[in-house]
């Protein structure tokens, strides 16, 4: 019987069990697969194989089941053994719903999960782990179909261990359900899950983009913890896996946040859910408009060769811009997320905007798409300081009142927060440590001025030093080009 016929079968009859083959092939319909164990001394390697038996070179087995309460994923182990080490799709493990739609599958390679269009060959004789997200199918019937449509000698499928695991690798079921609902409600591209050692992302962006963001976060987390620990701050690795919501476009980003966002905002850290939310700036509306306008202008260039060169140069510049901005945004928002999960700042406490943003901008500097070391001069923030022409926010307004973030001086506030935090890290580090200890348990803003004054003394001399420090930064470091 063909795959199409199996998937199209009505899901009726007794709801089966024995997903892990503990009772042999009971409740598994079909032929061509036999019980095997990869290691006779290890019961956990018990599974099924379609390896040639008595001349039979094809096979198909199916089981129908209802997704139990609280299940988040269905997982298994599998490999496709072929003579040349590649699988053309005739060896497969399929999970389909009641509408005969095949669910997307992920494979775990190393510490990361990624999309899996094919079942891979074994790795040194061992299967890979595969998983399907089933949190949106609680109480519904799904069917597993094991397929061997490959009649070439020696080509076969192995599968074992179908189960609904729980634990760190598949935590935060509310997040998965929320993202799945967003996908349905706003007709977004399909979501997929990606995992690394300390982070997990649910994304509908390009796989490469999502994986790069996880890599950025992993590298940054190590650098962040080492940087502050080596300077005497008490920081600990996050105790839970940190979550990212990654979108291919601003539409998904804004759907998550429930509001329109300024064109220049491509990422946020969302304290209530402790998640980092971002999208690929290559799809930014302003960049897309700039690209279209430039291409329209370029279409009037005389020769085909000149038009080609113009468009190639334009695409390269816009690609470099989005690459740099994506990296900077990721580092900035990851700094927020990690600082609130490593013991440095209290997510449930009162944290002034200057402190949260000063710390994040201290960590975000990039140079043409490459991330620089924490604490290095930040060209973008220096450029904002230059544009202020010496007209700065008073330190009292900066550190006590968060309203500057809602004004047209928001970029200046970020730049001054960067300069103030960096200055305190360099010149008043012990006072800054004491200040962070003092405010950690604060729940309301009433003590902000008193706490800041107690840690750093009178504001007047600090203000003078702050402005002189800004002048030094401007004199010593060329600012970035205007945004």
The major pleated sheet works out as: 7 strands, antiparallel
Low-confidence stretches: 1-15, 167-171
Q: If you compute it from the alpha carbons, what radius of gyration comes out, rounded to the nearest whole angstrom?
A: 28 Å
**Strand order, biggest sheet?**
2-3-11-5-9-7-8
Beta-strand segment tally: 18
Q: Which CATH top level class of the largest domain fits?
A: Alpha Beta
How many structural domains in the coordinates?
3
Shape: elongated
Percent of sequence in beta strands: 15-25%
Would you give the CATH topology of the largest domain?
A: Glutaredoxin
Instruction: Calculate the mean pLDDT score and round it.
Output: 84
> What's the helix count?
13
Task: Please estimate the helix content.
Answer: 25-40%
Structure class: alpha+beta
CATH architecture tag of the largest domain: 3-Layer(aba) Sandwich
Query: What is the CA–CA distance across the termini?
Result: 61 Å
